[in-house]
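Colleagues,

Please find the record for the two-part complex below.
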Amino acid sequence: MVRNKLAVVYHDNPHKDAVDMSAEINFPNLTLSAPSISFGSVLNDTTKVR
Amino acid sequence: MSSNVRAAQVHSIDTSVQSKARLVSALETIILFSAFNCSFQFQAAPLHIGYEYSYEPGVALVAQRQALTMRNVSSLPLSFSMHPTVPFTIDRPDWLLEPQEAVTVNVGFDAGYRADNQSHVVGTDEQRTHRTPHHKLTLNSLHMDAGLFIALHKSCSPQHPPRLLLNVAI
């Protein structure tokens, strides 16, 4: 979600108005639970699951 | 102090007061004025414009646009500027509206402004404009036959509540 304001500034007057702006951007993205996976030492001909 | 002297002083004061009273009544004038605010009316209330973009395979990402209509509901011409921030844009920043005149500005939004194709949440980034804390706007002036010049000013700023200043010069 993008939140922002469109400011309206009057010339020769300090009064200001603003219009709230918002936008939601959706792309097909994945969220990974960990940046890396370490299996440590693994014996030959065995498997390890993380 | 004798009673005659005191009576004479009282009489003198009364004469002076009467003289001032006559002077004041000679200059008595009814002053009419109007104070104007920057009155602006937007198309929708509450003031909010929302966009939504969802990716679709094979569909090019194009900027979205929405119309925002504004009307000057004050009795004075209104000059103003609009300042959008990324990713929002407008097609014209500076405007001058006559009383009761309405204009429509196109407000654009570019969903690809970060060029990373990531769904994201961005915090509030309000634009703040610093202004002179006490700005006076001359709104009206009156010239009277007695040679009295009166200027009316309107004071308007967030730090100082609106008030009217009356300057009198002979």
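The two ends of chain B are 41 Å apart (CA to CA).

Comments are welcome before we finalize the supplementary table.
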